[in-house]
């Protein structure tokens, strides 16, 4: 049955009533009266196909770019197209017209999305169907398209407005057991562009180091060396910021300073140096949204319960908050659009949802040091690492993948190993002679390296440029399941912070990407985890007492460890049937940015991985949860491989 759908306007954003100073205090825009137009024709070469799986059908469509993934709702193919238009554009008009509509009868129900935590301690769920969708004849989704706007820094260091258009080529009516599908779409984006060119960010300073004054003298050699290397760097103490800038709370005061530094100096990076003031015990939270009294540098907690139905983090730290300065209207993005003092709320009971822009303008990383001696350790590691280039580091051309079966097999491999291989293949684009070391569960019966304490510590000790862990985690440990095993009993062994003394790689320091729950939860202390609820399911999700989290422990370790790392400050999440989504999608994007997008600095890979993810997916609560709690530990301006002489 053919249908014809007329062209319709998705929406119009009218900003013409906003003054020029709304966008940024240092730039004035003069609006042009002429409209700009960008358009795309999307054609799908064939009708959808049905593939039976686990008592359902999966719907696939050639030409789709990704999948619609909402917990317990049908998984459907979608097409996402993101446009970049000048920041400050007004009268944004988006139209999207489906054509050649037809109908298909299904042989079974469409498989529901099954998002699960990457936890060592949380039982995985079976398929659950959202009755509001599966019990209805209404089409899901309820329209053929949607769009989102955001503002941030693009890959060319320009501040732009992102216009993301999402086409839903397949819409499902469960009670009618059918889908309607489109043969294509016509997309048009019209806008009034400012007459001035886009802001190019290349002025007074590249980086600001924010730390307590107690750490300044230890940081000065690094600041001096950064300036020598052409990374124009300055220092600002937390005390001075809190005295000079206003805000709702200390994290917002710090964010307002970062906005000033971005608008006035054109900074690209912020390096926070400072975590909790004690490894023994500290009160890490002053409010539901902030920690500052017992912190050297304040932290922002977001309020996004994990979409799981059985468990929810009480709130995760997000340094991304500090880097997201503007929204698409040109206004300061507080992350508290409801104004109730509960920041980045999405799904917290009894509170209004906040609409936040997660595109960063400034790239943030943190070294959550507790003592001056820890500052000295990381400063010396960075200075040594950057003092020579890749040619002087033969070990740099090594990639270590560590994984097993996180949830299931995918494309003929355990899903964790699949993600590691994907990351390695991206990295080979920039390092053609890259050597791959596989600590894989599938090596168990062949005598190869496996994800066990002995093999993991031995492999890292040999030195590597990059390490990718893909599996499960807790605050102090990482682990995975054997390729033929079952969750949650058949663990390989993994590694935890108490094995770190066995890692003796000295100056052969890798960048380590860690996929797993809570590996980056840097608000823990020894007594805090000791007194926490048993079985690792309390506030800190740490089954064994630990003074620091897994990811930060690798970076702050002396005589080896890592030069930088990533980790989740809350649950990592994944779609059980598609491993390259959610948390793992961000982690794989990190390597894609280096291998495919010519990224050469640490935080560029991290922040642009986030931008890439947002631009290519629909963002639901689970996505926002993963994006906001993905933490970067290290020097954001770090030159990957170091500087060649």
Model description:
The chain is an alpha+beta fold. Among the domains are: 9-194, Immunoglobulin-like; 387-633, Rossmann fold, CATH 3.40.50.1460. Helices cover 20% and strands 26% of the residues. It contains 13 helices and 33 strands. A 6-stranded mixed beta sheet has the order 25-22-26-30-31-33, with helices on both faces. A 4-stranded antiparallel beta sheet has the order 1-7-14-2, with no helix packed on it. A hairpin with a 2-residue loop joins strand 23 (409-410) and strand 24. Helix 7 packs parallel to helix 11 (582-596) and helix 11 (582-596) packs across helix 12 (602-616). The longest helix has 16 residues, at 250-265. The radius of gyration is 24 Å and the shape is globular. The model is unreliable at 1-32 (pLDDT under 50).
- Rounded to the nearest angstrom, the distance between the terminal CA atoms is 68 Å
- What quaternary form is this? single chain
Fraction in helix = 10-25%
Uncertain runs: 1-32
Q: How many DSSP helices?
A: 13
- What share of the residues does DSSP label as strand, in percent? 25-35%
Question: Biggest sheet, in brief?
Answer: 6 strands, mixed
Average pLDDT taken over every residue = 92
């Amino acid at each position: 049955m053919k249908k014809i759908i007329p062209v319709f306007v998705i929406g119009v954003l009218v900003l013409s009533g906003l003054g020029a100073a709304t966008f940024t205090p240092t730039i004035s825009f003069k609006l042009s009266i002429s409209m700009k137009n960008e358009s795309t024709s999307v054609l799908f070469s064939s009708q959808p196909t049905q593939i039976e799986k686990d008592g359902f059908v999966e719907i696939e469509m050639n030409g789709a770019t990704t999948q619609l993934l909402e917990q317990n709702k049908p998984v459907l193919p979608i097409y996402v197209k993101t446009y970049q238009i000048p920041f400050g554009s007004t009268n944004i008009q988006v139209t999207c017209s489906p054509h050649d509509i037809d109908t298909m009868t299904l042989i079974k129900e469409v498989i529901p999305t099954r998002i699960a935590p990457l936890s060592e301690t949380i039982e995985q769920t079976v398929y659950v169907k959202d009755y509001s969708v599966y019990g209805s004849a209404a089409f899901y989704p309820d329209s053929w398209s949607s769009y989102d706007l955001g503002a941030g820094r693009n890959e060319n260091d320009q501040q732009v407005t992102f216009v993301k258009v999402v086409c839903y080529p397949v819409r499902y009516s469960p009670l009618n057991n059918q889908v309607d599908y489109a043969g294509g779409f016509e997309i048009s984006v019209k806008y009034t562009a400012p007459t001035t060119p886009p802001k190019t960010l290349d002025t007074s300073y590249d980086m600001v180091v924010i730390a307590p004054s107690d750490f300044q003298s230890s940081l000065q050699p690094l600041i001096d060396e950064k300036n020598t290397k052409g990374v124009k760097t300055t220092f600002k103490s937390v005390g001075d910021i809190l005295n000079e800038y206003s805000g709702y709370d200390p994290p917002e005061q710090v964010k307002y300073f970062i906005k000033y530094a971005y608008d006035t100096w054109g900074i690209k990076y912020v390096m926070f140096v400072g975590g909790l003031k004690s490894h023994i015990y500290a009160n890490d939270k002053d409010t539901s949204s902030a920690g500052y009294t017992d912190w050297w540098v304040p932290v922002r907690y977001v309020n996004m319960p994990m979409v799981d139905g059985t468990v929810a983090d009480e709130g995760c730290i997000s340094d991304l908050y500090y880097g997201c300065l503007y929204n698409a209207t040109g206004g300061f993005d507080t992350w508290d659009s409801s104004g109730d003092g509960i920041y980045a709320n999405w799904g917290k009971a009894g509170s209004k949802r906040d609409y936040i822009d997660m595109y960063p303008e400034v790239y943030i990383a943190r070294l959550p040091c507790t003592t001056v001696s820890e500052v000295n350790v990381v400063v010396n590691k960075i200075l040594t690492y950057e003092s020579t280039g890749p040619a002087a580091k033969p070990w740099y051309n090594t990639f270590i993948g560590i994984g097993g079966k996180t949830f299931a097999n995918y494309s003929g491999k355990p899903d964790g190993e699949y993600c590691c291989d994907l990351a390695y293949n991206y990295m080979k684009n920039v390092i053609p002679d890259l050597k791959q070391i596989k600590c894989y569960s599938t090596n168990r019966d062949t005598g190869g390296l496996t994800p066990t304490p002995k093999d993991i510590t031995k492999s890292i000790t040999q030195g590597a440029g990059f390490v990718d862990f893909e599996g499960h985690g807790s605050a102090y440990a990482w682990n995975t399941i054997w390729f033929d095993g079952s969750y949650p009993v058949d663990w390989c062994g993994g590694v935890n912070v108490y094995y770190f003394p066995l890692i003796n790689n000295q100056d052969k320091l890798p960048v380590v990407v860690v996929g797993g729950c809570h590996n980056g939860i840097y608000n823990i202390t020894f007594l805090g985890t000791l007194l926490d609820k048993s079985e690792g399911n309390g506030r800190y999700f740490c089954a064994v007492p630990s003074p620091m989290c897994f990811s930060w422990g690798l970076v702050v370790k002396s005589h080896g460890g890592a030069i930088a790392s990533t980790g989740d400050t809350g649950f990592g999440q994944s779609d059980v049937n598609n491993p390259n989504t959610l948390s793992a999608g961000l982690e794989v994007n990190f390597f894609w940015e280096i291998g495919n997008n010519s990224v050469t600095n640490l935080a560029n890979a991290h922040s642009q991985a986030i931008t890439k993810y947002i631009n290519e997916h629909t963002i639901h609560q689970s996505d926002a949860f993963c994006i906001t709690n993905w933490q970067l530990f290290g020097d954001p301006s770090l030159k990957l491989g170091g500087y060649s002489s």
